Amino acid sequence: AEILPKSTRSPTRSETSSISSYSGVSEEWRPLLIIIPLRLGLNTINRCYFPAIQAFFELPQCVGIIGGRPNHALYFCGIVDNNLLYLDPHFCQNFVDLDETTTTRDERDDYVEIKNDEFKDSTYHCPFILSTKIDKVDPSLALGFFCHTEDDYNELAKRLRTHLLPASTPPLFEMLETRPKNFPPFVPYVGENTKLRDYMDLGEVNDSYDEFELLE
């Protein structure tokens, strides 16, 4: 992946208006990805949460669950009864070269190489369905929601109160109108200027620590 430097030029009013009208997003709103980490049990997911997990996948703003088993992360994208459907990020597939020419045979000629828009998309799909029982999944997981517009967010908040949270007792999580008084002050994230060299010491294999002793 290539990281491009962020432009220092601010968009003009006409550019902002064009982008907003094209994407359907207001100038005051940016598409929002919400990830809610949870622990729904001690060693396995408590059965009382099963109905809520099923209700979660019915939400239009649902983008799946990050979870899995110990030392094996999975992405859960659907559910059938008590079986979670998942994609395994550790399963590698061959990449598709869109510039590759395809070979076509014409009865009147020999083999002819032509370029077209067709390509083999078999690696874009799973060869078989991957699923696992809910009670086999580690209880530490994270729910994902995506709100493209402010209306999506308002609809999500409404559906959480009327559809998702009442589906289990206790609910998966709570929604509050104001920040609890015992919480520390909210500090918005403004980005970090950490440079790569700040992490170079992570690659040192001969570092010693006072609190550890290597025994042979």
From TrEMBL:
Protease: present as a keyword of the record? yes
Query: What subcellular compartments does it reside in?
Result: Cytoplasm
Location of the Peptidase C54 catalytic domain: 24-158
Q: Kindly indicate whether the keyword GTP-binding belongs to this entry.
A: no
Query: Annotated Gene Ontology MF terms?
Result: cysteine-type endopeptidase activity; protein-phosphatidylethanolamide deconjugating activity
Q: Which domain of life is it from?
A: Eukaryota
Quote a single Gene Ontology cellular component term: cytoplasm
Q: Which reaction equations make up its catalytic activity? A: [protein]-C-terminal L-amino acid-glycyl-phosphatidylethanolamide + H2O = [protein]-C-terminal L-amino acid-glycine + a 1,2-diacyl-sn-glycero-3-phosphoethanolamine
Tell me the keywords, alphabetical order: Autophagy, Cytoplasm, Hydrolase, Protease, Protein transport, Thiol protease, Transport
- Which Enzyme Commission number(s) are listed? 3.4.22.-
Which class of enzymes does this protein belong to? hydrolase
Q: Which GO terms describe its biological process?
A: aggrephagy; autophagosome assembly; mitophagy; piecemeal microautophagy of the nucleus; protein processing; protein transport
Summarize the protein's role.
Cysteine protease that plays a key role in autophagy by mediating both proteolytic activation and delipidation of ATG8 family proteins.
Q: Which family does it belong to?
A: Belongs to the peptidase C54 family.
Question: What is the official name of this protein in its record?
Answer: Cysteine protease
What are the top taxonomic ranks of the organism?
A: Eukaryota, Metazoa, Ecdysozoa, Nematoda, Chromadorea
